[in-house]
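As agreed, record copied across for absentees:
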Amino acid sequence: MYPDDLKYHPEHTWARIEGDTATVGITYYAQDQLGEIVYLELPEVGTEVKAGEPFCEIESVKSVSDVYSPVNGEVVETNSEAVEAPEIINEDCYGKGWLIKVKLADHSGVEELMDAEAYEKHISEQG
C-alpha cells in the first residue's frame, strides 16, 4: 500500500526521487480519505514549490483539499491526464495518478521525509 521506493511527507504526499527530479503525488491514505476525486487544479510549469506549502487543490465529492509539496524546487511537468480524468488518482495514486514533476532546488529536506514504515506509523497515530 505504501511503496518502499518513495519518500513521504506528513501531509500525505509522496516523492519518487530520481537524480535531480522528484515525481510527486498523494498517498493511498489521502485519496482514500478524500473519496471520489472529481477535480484537480495543478500549478503551471515553472512554478516554484516549497516543502510543506500547498501547490494545488484537489476536489472530491466530500471536500476541497490543499496538496502540500514534499520538496523544494521548480515544476517541470504536470500530469495533464490526471487533470482531464482525476479519477485515475483514486485508481493508481502511485503510478498514472502522479501530479507534478519537480526539478529539485537542493536535496536538503529530502532526508527529512519519511520512509514507508515511518509513514505507516504516522497515519496509524492519526487514528
